[in-house]
Structure prediction request, 117 residues.
Amino acid sequence: MQFTDQKAIYLQIIDLVMEKILSKEWSIGEKIPSVRDLGANIEVNPNTVMRAYDKLQQDELIFNKRGLGFYVSEDAVERIQHLLKKNFLEHEAPKFFQNAKLLNINLNEIMELYYKH
Prediction:
């Protein structure tokens, strides 16, 4: 995993876990890698992974079966979509539309580009 300096590592791990759930690489109810295994796999201190898992648990995206490990929550996909949509609408969309306005890009141009891809 390639980490960036713009965001705390534990937050980037959260993004990774959410991406794996949304892409169905990790299914609902499935056991996810242990703190140690994920830490070793992405070359991060297990304490950092645990911090990410704690936050994911607080957001009810994963849950812990004591002694067995962490699992993907039943409604994780819907919760992740809600969180990411909220973040997009509050932070990314305003920047996007501000840039479009400054560059005199109209909605038709944006829609054309969107439907091409």
Notes: The first helix runs from residue 9 to 22. The two ends are 27 Å apart (CA to CA).
